[in-house]
Structure formats: C-alpha cells, structure tokens
Specification:
This protein is of the alpha/beta class. The chain has one domain: Vaccinia Virus protein VP39 (Rossmann fold, 3-Layer(aba) Sandwich). It contains five helices and seven strands, in the order βαβαββαβαβαβ. The model has no long low-confidence stretch (mean pLDDT 94). The protein binds S-adenosylmethionine. The site of S-adenosylmethionine (SAM) has 20 residues, from strand 2 and helix 5.
C-alpha cells in the first residue's frame, strides 16, 4: 500500500523551530506560551483505533514517511511519532486521517521533557533517527540524546525491547556512543545493511544513500534488571 503523497501538499516549513523548544520546559528562557504541550498522560482510546497504547515510538519523526510506511507494513502494531515542529505534525496527521492509517499517530511534543505519557515496560522498539546535529558547541545543549533520555528509553522498553539509532554525523555518533557507554542499562552493536532488520527507510536515510554519505546504525539492547 503505497501512499500517493501528491494528495497532501507540503506547506512551507523551517528546518528548526523556536530554540526554546529544544530545552526542557523548566529551563526554557522566554516563557513561550506556545511551547509544545506537556503531556503527562494520553488517552490511547482517543489516539489509536484499537484503543491500545503504542508498541513503537519514532522520536523526532520529521515528515513521518518512516512512521507512515512502517505503520502500513506492520498494521498490528501501534506506532507513535513524537515531533517538536508543529507543521510536520499537522501534515502527518492529515495523511494519517486521509489514508485511514489507524495504527499510526503523531504528537507535537518536545522529548527533552521525558516521555511520562508512555507506560513503563510497554514499548518494543524505539526509533531515534538522524537527530539534528547541533554542531556548534553552544548549541550542543539542544541535543535530546542525554543520560536522562536513555533513562526514559530504559523505563519504557519491554525487557527484550530495542532502541535503534542512525546518524550520518560522526560527531553525533561519537557523542551518542559516549553517553551509551556510560549508561548502565544499554549495550549496543553497530549494524551492517544485512543486520539491520527494519523494513522501511527514513527520509534522511534515503537522502544519505542518494548522496553517497556514510551513516552509522546502532542496535541498542536494554538490560531491565
Ligand atoms: C533531521 S530530522 C530526522 C527526521 C527523521 N527521523 C528521518 O530520519 O528522516 C530530526 C527531527 O527531529 C526533530 N526533533 C529535534 N529535537 C526534538 C525534540 N526535542 N523533540 C522531538 N523532536 C525533535 C526535528 O524537528 C526533526 O524533525
């Protein structure tokens, strides 16, 4: 089931949003009233057609092609996209409704506030693909991948759950590995094309392939005890 994206014109949108949104709500400076909602719980019966909770998370889902196509490929699993920019969220929501992809949903939310609305031990797979690199040292604090982020991933993943990472930025890869190495609850392996078990590619992944950029894939397993 491929989606005819020409039915869903993409509005003009920026690569980044307000710098405040990349900081946790209690550390953002401007008291922006328009900060993404701080969900502590979500009523899944209003989110997914089967009334169940998500089993898959796509964090920083961008324009959502991976989310939408993964949902179609695995229709028995609910997948939730989490995205800090409002315009892609609205666009993805339009595609989900237009195509009636009942097992996909997306929320406007900044993951630097944790994911308290996701139950512990409930998630099979977390996808965290091609995060914004924030190259400049003074912008590093906008990176969402932190020890606290890994604590949240470890909390929500099921005992055999997996966190999948991809990046085409060597500095981001080294930064993420350092945080993973220091974290007591994750072990990881780098995957080749053959070892990568996911059936769908992300927009950034396709871009990297088309432009001949190298990129790294890590499969991170959680230790629950
Ligand atoms: C480079 S894009 C990658 C999109 C997609 N994962 C892919 O592989 O094509 C990174 C995405 O992460 C989103 N993002 C960055 N910081 C975030 C945050 N704190 N919470 C949620 N999403 C975030 C950005 O808005 C952007 O859409």
């Amino acid at each position: 089931m491929s989606i005819d994206y020409s039915k869903y014109p993409v509005p003009r949108m920026r690569h980044h949003t307000s710098p405040n949104y990349y900081l946790p709500h209690d550390r953002q400076q401007l008291g922006d009233a328009d900060y993404p909602p701080l969900y502590t719980s979500l009523d899944w019966s209003q989110v997914f057609a089967d009334g169940g909770a998500p089993e898959l998370l796509d964090i920083g889902c961008g324009m959502g092609h991976f989310l939408l196509e993964y949902a179609q490929t695995c229709p028995r699993q609910n997948i939730l996209g989490i995205e800090v920019r409002r315009a892609p969220v609205e666009w993805i929501d339009g595609v989900i409704k237009g195509e009636k992809i009942d097992n996909a949903a997306v929320v406007w939310y900044s993951v630097v506030n944790g994911i308290p609305f996701v139950a512990s031990d409930s998630i099979e797979r977390i996808f965290y693909f091609f995060p914004d690199p924030w190259f400049k040292k003074r912008h590093n604090k906008r990176r969402a991948f932190t020890a606290a982020f890994l604590d949240e991933c470890a909390r929500v993943l099921k005992p055999d759950g997996v966190l999948y990472l991809m990046t085409d930025v060597p500095d981001v890869d080294a930064y993420q590995r350092k945080i993973l190495d220091a974290h007591p609850r994750f072990s990881y392996v780098e995957c080749s094309d053959e070892q990568w078990e996911l059936p769908v590619k992300t927009d950034q992944e396709i871009l990297s392939i088309n432009r001949g950029f190298g990129y790294t894939r890590l499969r991170c397993e959680v230790r629950k005890s």
